[in-house]
Amino acid sequence: MSSSPATEPDLDSQVATDPRTGRPAGALQGGILLACACMAVLAAVLMSPNLPRIQQAFADTPGCPR
């Protein structure tokens, strides 16, 4: 084991920045990204109880899976 203190990595070089402005993403951009990522899961959860009714409504449609 080395007796030298552990050095912390330089995180400034690891922050994603906008190539046009050079500014890092803020909380607003993080919130928008999180909301968009959750939309697909929320849509599946909200639609799943209605799938049997949707299948019944389109049962007479040609090409509808049964």
Write the layout of secondary structure elements.
Blueprint: H1 27-47, H2 51-57
* Content of β-strand: under 5%
Helix content, binned percent: 40-55%
* Oligomeric grouping of the chains: single chain
Structural class, by secondary structure, is mainly alpha
Short description:
With 66 residues, this protein is an all-alpha fold. The chain has a domain of 33 residues. The chain contains two helices and no strands.
Describe this structure in words.
This protein is an all-alpha fold. The chain is 42% helix and 0% strand. It has a domain at 26-58. It has helices spanning 27-47, 51-57. The mean pLDDT is 83.
Kindly list the characteristics that best describe this protein.
66 residues, 2 helices, elongated, mainly alpha
